[in-house]
Design a protein that fits this description.
The protein has two helices and no strands. It starts with a helix and ends in a 14-residue tail after the last helix. With 98 residues, the protein is mainly α. The longest helix is centred in the N-terminal third of the chain and has 45 residues.
């Protein structure tokens, strides 16, 4: 395939334009990736600095109950609820056939 002089006058500038466009798209994707990384780092730093859960000892109550007693009561209450909550059909029937 041979190119004529007129075809080269059109083809060469189009090649440069296509190269520039490809480079711009690559730079845009790189900038988007950098921006996403920066945003992720900021969010990670913010989550490290903020308090997500407060401990039960940090609460200020009007009554002067010991925190250990309060946590023991809560734990006992959870244990009682777990014992009371039974599965509707597990453990109530044993199949001996087979």
């Amino acid at each position: 395939m041979s190119l004529k002089a007129i075809e080269l006058q059109i083809a060469i500038p189009k090649t440069f334009e296509a190269g520039k466009i490809a480079e711009q798209k690559q730079q845009q994707s790189q900038l988007a990736q950098d921006s996403a990384n920066l945003q992720t780092e900021k969010q990670a730093l913010k989550s490290k600095e903020t308090v997500l859960k407060s401990s039960p000892y940090a609460k200020m109550d009007g009554d002067h109950q010991q925190p250990s007693e309060e946590s023991q009561q809560q734990q006992e209450k959870k244990e009682k609820e777990q014992q009371q909550a039974k599965h509707p059909f597990k453990g109530s029937f044993v199949d001996y056939s087979g």
